[in-house]
Amino acid sequence: MWMEFIVSSKRTPRQNNFSVIAAYIGVVLIWSTTPLAITWSGQAAGFLFGVSSRMVVGMVLAVAFTLLLGARLVWHRRAIQAYAYAGMGLYCSMTAVYWAAQYIPSGWIALLFGLTPIFSAIMAALWLEGEPITRNRMIGMLIGLLGLLWIVKSSLAWHESAIYGVLGVVLSGLLYSLSAVWVKRAGADIPATTMNAGSLMVAAPLFFLTWCFTQPGWATTWLLMQHATWHSLMSIAYLAVFGSVFGFSLYYFILQRLDATRTALISFMTPITAMILGVYFNDEVITQDILIGGVFVLVGLAWFEFGHRVMKHH
Asked: Which is higher by pLDDT, 86 or 45?
């Protein structure tokens, strides 16, 4: 019943506002736990198996969920464009972030992914109408990018391969933002569950084929699965159900109702909770330099969103 708002079109403005708020909170909660689940799922039989199995299972569940709710898959030109943009973005960005999770703590993933509003703002200014980059937004961008540079510097001192993880997450954020802006640009105006199912129908076969061409062998994979920890296997199931089905459905729901940069600000809320979860459940170490860089990132994002309001009172 809680997902009824996704496909219902006969709602009052107040009910619609509540639906958007509820969806926003749901995405924040899911995305707060996703980095740690990504790290754990990659420990089962490699990062490609983790992401591929998640997406294939997620596709089956998403299509079934869409049909169960009475929605239908649509195949007009704009819908196909939106599926392609979202699916390719999903394939490229998730491959990059799962690969990066091998090299850095899960808390770093959420922190670096918080830069997506900056990437989204630049791309939205190029390809969407009504998305200007103001002076205050530019200041916020510069502060956030300063935080990124600080984290890059710190990663070089923390571990020799950590820079790969940092750059991988940044690349994932860029690809994710590009996909979100182009989905918005397509203007398909289709239900969020349909959008999610369609994007997974594009992405899941690509993940499966990638894994088939790179996996070490069926016997080796099966042996690794037998020795995998329970939380690694449960993480794959969790990400397939909540990350791929509910998480993306809710995300596309709010993406259709809010501008791309405001939607990306969800990433502003998740780094703190994700880092706490990583420290508490995975014994991750957050250095002083990473905290300093993180503060710059979060302050930059806060100024990016609210700087114009602060300046009005001065």
From this structure: 86
